[in-house]
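The methods section describes the discrete structure representation at length, but only in general terms. What matters is that the chain and its backbone geometry are given together, residue for residue. Nothing conveys this as quickly as seeing an actual entry. For illustration, here is how one protein appears when written out as sequence plus structure tokens:
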Amino acid sequence: MDIDSLSLDAFCAVIIPADKFHESLSADFEILADCCNTEEGFLENAQELAEYWSQCDELDSAWANIFWDDEEVKSKEELVKTLKTIAENIKKVRKIPEEKREYDF
């Protein structure tokens, strides 16, 4: 699904904090959205990804794949904090029935 089809709740929960951290992180979540058929599928996969990366023992190797060794990237501690925030945001959005979520149509 295209990110333009996401509810504002989902977009603000995932894409905005990812983009505030680094555009490469938001791009990864945008690509993930393209691979999903529904918002719920996107939220489920995004939550799993955020939780995995925030607990990843191999964060150093994942780091290079996510950010292409960009020297302007904030610290790994900030990345983990952002990923945990995204995961928590997703949990909140998933509690909102889809028909009650806001859409920008």
